[in-house]
Fold:
Amino acid sequence: LNKSVRNLEESLTKYSVYLEELRRRLLFLTKLFVVVFAVGFFLTPPAIRFILAHIDIQGVTIVTTSPFQLVDLAMSVGFFLGCIVTIPILVYNFYSFVRPGLLKSERSFFVFSVPIGLLLFLIGFLYGCAMLYFATKLIAQVNLGLGVANYWDISSFISQMVFTSSLLGVLFIFPLIVTFLIRLGIITVDFLKSKRRHAVAIIFVIVSLLPPTDGLSLILMAAPLVLIFEFTVLFNRVKN
Structure:
């Protein structure tokens, strides 16, 4: 028992510098998240005014159903903005922390993949916003044609837009994740080619769980993801 205690103390002493550096970085990220969360919380009212001023959906009235709904929405916006800002910085801090132990090729791939990943996320997020805007306009007109009034809850409307667009942004990073797994030898290009049908089916299942649930939106969201999968297979086959 004493020997185990001594070994533990020696390990803690040996890695105390790294643990302290890790603690310092985590504390910085926590403070940054809190600050950005507060900024997002207090910027929600002008952001809502901006969004509503630029949303041109005829026959739709945006309403609140609770006196505390805007507060809940502000909390969601603050959390979302905090994640968007801190996650890239978290990735950078993780890279700088493990960089001394990486090979040159691994460092090059990481440096290349981070900005590409952010760009892909942005493209996916903007595509999701545009697609959902088109879908909501179409749904609004269908409702009016049926004689149904469009009174949409502001919290659900904005939250679903942001949530679905963010998930599409994450799914657009799929090529980098697959390429990284291929570089590590965990999967192969031949494996991806043999599981093409399964991959397409999984894409449609994931997309079907996202709002909205109409068939047109399903196709519009799934189509670019299927193309991204095919591009990933083609890219890695050429590289190999």
About this structure: The beta strands are 60-63, 150-153.
